[in-house]
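Materials and Methods. Structural model of Delta-like protein. The 243-residue sequence of Delta-like protein from Polyodon spathula was retrieved and submitted for structure prediction as follows.
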Amino acid sequence: NYFGPFCNKFCRARDDFFGHHVCDAGGNRVCSEGWMGAECRQAICKQGCHPVHGYCKQPGECRCHYGWQGPNCEECVTFPGCVHGSCTEPWKCVCDTNWGGLLCNKDLNYCGTHQPCLNSGTCVNTEPNEYQCICEEGFRGRGCEIVEHACLSSPCANGSTCVEDSSGFQCLCPAGWTGPTCTEETDECGPSPCAHGGTCQDLHNGFQCSCPPQWTGKTCQLDADECELQLCVNALACRNLIG
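The predicted structure was written out as tokens:
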């Protein structure tokens, strides 16, 4: 452990809290890989680790100081709850364009973001997260969604009756028609009215069932009387059975 011409230079290799080094032929300390400093006690951090916001206790790592984050500790931590904002120093919340409030959660351009006004209405931003629609003539409602005197344009088809209500209008459809303006023909086959495997054909305001040979009736609900076909030859009588 002693070096030099007079053996008066002390050097001992170590790898502990007090240093991480070996000794060369002249008794000089040579830091182990990943360590530096006069005592070889300072770890060399991961390449790219921020010299101010990051630190390391072991070679190759990068630990962040409080308020900083990211692989190299280059990103500041925003104020808790910050929604549409960023920071240049920890615990700040600098709002993005068109956002305001302490947490940057108030939409300053609600009209542009959501376009809430219908039917060519004009939207005006009044307060954060608030707006007002200026409706064209003939429309009303918060979003200009209600048509005034809607029945004047005769929107209901096929002889239906138009009734104005709070949402604009409602069409009372006659039999055989359905839909918001009574333009869709009712599908009478929808409820599957034909029994015993009968095939349903949709007609205007009605339906027709094509029944299997052993069944009859409007909905194939009646048992056909096969005896009427005189199928029995040289028999005293014919007895009809179900199906």
